[in-house]
Amino acid sequence: MKDKIKVFVVETFLFGEGDELSEDTSFLNEGIIDSTGVLELVDFIEEEFGVTVEDDELVPDNFDSIEKIENYLKNIKLRA
Amino acid sequence: MPETFPGVKFDSHGVCNHCRRRRKIAEEGGGKRDHYIEKFENIIKKSRGNAPDYDVIMAFSGGKDSSYTAKLLKEVYGLRILALTFDNHFISPVAMENIQTVTDNLGIDHLMVRLPWRNARSLFNLASENDIFSKPTLLRASTICTACIGLVKSIVLKTALEKRIPLVAFGWSPGQAPVQSATLKNNPAMVESSQRSFMNALPEKMRKEFAPFFIDNSLLRLNPEIYPYNIHPLAFCHYDESEIKDALTRIGWVKPSDTDSNSTNCLLNAFANQCHIERHGYHPYVWEIANMVRQGIMSRQEGIDKIYVQQNPVLVDYAKSKLMD
């Protein structure tokens, strides 16, 4: 799961240059993703992992790093 | 895309990895466009007529895209609009006239927010000499533009919260905000994070000077439910530059002859582009223009004409001299 997320973020927002991207790198603090970019990320997550992200779930705690996205997805699966 | 764009790789046909990737995404996900259109129209329907004074506040530069966005919001979607212009001291005289003409002819209320010149000059000088924001931001815009648009986005959102306006609209092209990124429900946590990232790029003194532009704690503590949606209406319309210009001339808009090829309002843009090209070896608009070419909105030749042209030296010198005074 983390690998797929990382590949997407590196290809889409870092244009292949992702050597410094770790699992806990903050996308917002590092300016990797902005408010329009986060929606591209959501689009990918919904398509890739078959989930629906509600508007009120679009918060940094769920999407601001590779690790946080993985935790969010695990929590969704637990709820389902 | 130029060879100097970070991470670009060309195959044996001369097609770059970004085009191949985007083509693949379009083939796999093309069916979602209707879903995004439906979501956008539902948001408009829910917001229309329910707020005290305005349905939407829009960042209005007087340029082609924001003027056309205003026209769509008024004439197609029937919204009550407050236009807000951020005067960065580099609005072209023709654009300033367009701001007045378009708001008058569309019957739109208008606010102008203007930085003191010394603050604007400090910020743009800093941004012209230093890449103060993170490296990924440079892939999509010059440092000067990122600094300016950061203030615009913040003051527009802050005004929306203060006036309880449910929608915040931007006239971003489909190259800047594609359909899957064209509606976003703001929330306090995301706003606070984005804001902190921007402010951390500025020296302490500047953070205090620009603090009034940003969302303070009293607004961050508001119920997330009342936070507005950001919308980019141009993602949902048929986008054709010449048709847009024709439509705008019917409401009195005049194409400026005093700006560069990538802007229809700003006299700082050519200098911002020049700084970026000198430091990084590629034009800061290349990502947006490449997206528009891929989406079929612009021909490859039109894109090349916008990117691979020398920045107007008169405009570059004008901005440089003004900032040095």
Draw up the topology in text:
The complex is a heterodimer of chains A (80) and B (325).
Chain A: H1 2-13, H2 35-49, H3 60-63, H4 66-79
Helix pairs in contact in A: 1-2
Chain B: H1 17-29, H2 33-47, E1 56-59, H3 64-76, E2 81-87, H4 93-106, E3 109-114, H5 117-129, H6 135-138, H7 143-163, E4 167-169, E5 183-185, H8 188-200, H9 204-210, H10 217-220, E6 229-231, H11 241-249, H12 269-280, H13 286-294, H14 300-307, H15 313-324
Helix pairs in contact in B: 3-4, 3-11, 5-7, 12-15, 13-14
Plain-language structure description:
The complex is a heterodimer of chains A (about 80) and B (about 325). Chain A is built from 4 helices and no strands. Chain A is an all-alpha fold and about 80 residues long. In chain A, helix 1 packs antiparallel against helix 2. Chain A is globular, with a radius of gyration of 12 Å. The mean pLDDT of chain A is about 85. In chain B, helix 3 links the parallel strand 1 and strand 2. Chain B is built from 15 helices and 6 strands. With about 325 residues, chain B is an alpha/beta fold. Chain B has a 6-stranded mixed beta sheet, sandwiched between helices. In chain B, helix 3 runs parallel beside helix 4. Chain B starts with 16 loop residues before the first helix and ends with a helix.
